[in-house]
Amino acid sequence: MKRLSIVLLLVLSGMACAGVEYRQFASPEQQEAYESLTSELRCLVCQNQTIADSNAELAADLRRQVYEMLQQGKSKQDIAQFMTDRYGDFVLYNPPFKLKTGLLWIGPVMFLLIGLIAVFLFTRRKKTAATVEISAEKQQKIRSLLEKGDQS
Amino acid sequence: MLKYILPLILFIVLAVFLALGLNLHPSEIPSPLIDKPAPAFSAPKLQAPEEKLSPTDLKGKVWLFNVWASWCASCRSEHPILNQLAQQKAAIIVGLNYKDEPEAAKGWLAQLGNPYDVSIMDQDGRIGIDWGVYGVPETFVVDKQGVIRYKHTGPVTPEDVQQTFLPLIAKLQAEN
Predict the structure, then answer these.
(1) Which residues on chain B are in Cβ contact (under 8 Å) with A57?
(2) How many other C-beta atoms can be found within 10 angstroms of the C-beta atom of residue A71?
(3) Local mean pLDDT, 10-residue blocks, chain A (152 residues)
(4) Number of domains observed in the structure of chain A
(5) Interface contact A122, partner B, CB < 8 A
(6) Tens of pLDDT along B28-67?
(7) DSSP of chain A
(8) B39 → chain A, closest CA residue
(9) Of A29, A101, B43, B132, which is most buried with the most CB atoms under 10 A?
């Protein structure tokens, strides 16, 4: 039984490897460009994955496209342009700053500012509330109540 | 007073954003190819692989470019609508048989009817990449000058045909 399961595992592990793509690069720089590009391009089928992460067929085709263009000596910029010409800025996980993408870039900063202003306003209000003056008469009363409490 | 109005304003702002979010269709990515010349190709015809078709062969004609495959389930639901559209002969319908087996594709056309004036083969998906195809089916409308004027992602419905495709085709047919 044990032997059978070992054989089975060995056979199955071979199948798991079959899905891995092997790419040969001319230089480490080229490999680095390939890895950074595929992790910056969005897979349009499963939109929350990069083409490096996705198993979708389109992602595999786009990886092949990136690889081939690198082999042809195209720069990273050329390849990013090639993709946006066909799929739009949406294909980039790091979209350029434009009128259309402005809210995307400014939004977080805007929310941070709103949050900071809100925190500032609320803490200031609390401070003024905390420093309410207590009249001498009331202070006297409080003191006498406290002293009474100590005696009992 | 502000104490009561502020939550209300916050609620309205949130509701507006959520309502906008509900009406977005993130799966429909606007194509940058609209109003651009149709990307060139020269691809073998499905029914006659020794012959090739390129967009320049269709200059002066309004044509639809429908991306389909025999493995694509939503293409099956779209197919009868294309068959009906083909009968009206409003425009030439060119099929892009995307990442498919030619035999399976021919079998599908024989079984379900062939709405295409011609289908071309794109077995490795390269034409698809040039056209920004990311989901099958997709349908492009190309005018007489060879410029892409419209793109529809997903299966075409009878409403789309009546409300979008036929009026647009009529308009483009009237252009020079």
Answers:
(1) 99, 125
(2) 14
(3) 70 56 86 93 87 91 94 93 92 83 87 94 76 81 84 58
(4) 2
(5) no
(6) 788 899 999 999 999 999 999 999 999 999 999 999 999 9
(7) -HHHHHHHHHHHHHHHHTT------SSHHHHHHHHHHHTTBBPSSSTTSBTTT--SHHHHHHHHHHHHHHHTT--HHHHHHHHHHHH-GGGBSS----TTTHHHHHHHHHHHHHHHHHHHHHHHHHHHHHTPPPPHHHHHHHHHHHHHHHH-
(8) A86
(9) B132
pLDDT digits (tens, 9 = 90+) for B85-120: 999 999 999 999 999 999 999 999 999 999 999 999
Paired tokens of B166: 């036929």
Average pLDDT over all residues of chain A: 84
> Which residue segment(s) compose the domain that A39 sits in?
22-91
Asked if residue B79 belongs to a domain, the reply is: yes
Both A47 and A87 in one domain: the answer is yes
Question: What is the rounded CA–CA span in Å between residue A33 and residue A21?
Answer: 17
- B53's enclosing H/E stretch is strand B52-53
Q: Is A58 in contact with B30 (Cβ distance < 8 A)?
A: no
Report d(CA A151, CA A92) in Å as an integer.
75
Q: What angle do CA B46, B47, B50 make, to 5 degrees?
A: 80
Q: Is the pTM of this model over 0.90?
A: no
